[in-house]
Amino acid sequence: MMTATGGLSDYQVTLPDRFSKKEHPMSDVTVFGVPGSPYVRAVLLALEEKEIPYTLVRMGPGETKQPAHLERHPFGRIPAFTHGDFQLYETQAILRYIDAVFPGIALRPAEPRATARMDQMMGVVDWYFFRDIGTTIIFNRVVAPAFGMPTDEAACTAAIPKAEICAHEVDRLIGDNPYVAGDGISLADLMLVPHMEYFSISPEGAAVLQPYPRLTAWLKRIQARPSMQATSLEKLRQAA
Predict the structure, then answer these.
(1) What is the pTM of this model?
(2) Cis-peptide, bond into residue 79, ω within 30° of zero
(3) 89 Cβ partners below 8 Å, 6+ apart?
């Protein structure tokens, strides 16, 4: 449920300035980032799943290193997040805060092993999927064309072996479960799906994911959720 101002800085495109969803007495939530960034989208997905209104302030491609944003995030990354007078950055911290503070669907499982699996997958996304697929295949197939930049075909080809490891391990960890941590959606699903959706539309991703029907079914299951529809680039454009 969103209000927005202003835009992938992990992956980037450009949109108009600000948009918001109706106010809520428990809200006063603002997300700063570039629409299209998978990390920004993960935070928006959590807010949508919780049905918490928020304002999205769009960052332009060069704004993450400007003084105003560096006050929110000294490392110049996205997203940054405020809830009233409380400021926070780092996607995993923001996601856990959202689930702890706001009512609605529980996005963290209660059972210890399911929680550990959720935490493990969130680490896989940050340390392997983004590094080995996001900065190579997704950057060259999604980001570069959006900005009229040349595609590094050699980088895409070189990334395939590690992409295959990522796909195999993500498929193994989810297994036959409908969601990463079991029967219910969790923060891990929300962190993984924006990256996986981009990967799936690349030629390398289509080929790498082809042997994993369970993983493809997981992706389609998450894509069908209203939160995914509400945070698509097309939807953000319409709301802007």
Answers:
(1) 0.90
(2) yes
(3) 72, 73, 75, 77, 79, 80, 81
Which amino acid belongs to residue 169?
Answer: E
125 CB contacts (<8 Å, ≥6 apart)? 188, 191, 192, 195
CA-nearest of 58, 50, 108, 94 to 226 is 50
Helix or strand or coil: residue 104? coil
Planar angle of CA 108, 167, 89, nearest 5 degrees: 45
First to last CA, the chain: 13
- Nearest-angstrom CA–CA distance, 35 and 162: 27
User: In this predicted structure, what is the pLDDT of residue 20?
Assistant: 52
How do beta strands 54-58 and 29-33 pair? parallel
> What are the DSSP calls for 62-85, one per residue?
TGGGSHHHHHH-TT--S-EEEETT
Closest CA to 128 of 93, 165, 179: 165
- CB neighbour class for 187 (10 Å; exposed up to 12, middle 13-18, buried from 19): buried
Q: Read off the pLDDT of residues 47-89 as tens digits, 9 standing for 90 and up.
A: 999 999 999 999 877 899 999 999 999 999 999 999 999 999 9
3-state class of 100 per DSSP? helix
Instruction: Please name each of the domains of the chain with its CATH number.
Output: 2-106+235-239 (3.40.30.10), 112-226 (1.20.1050.10)
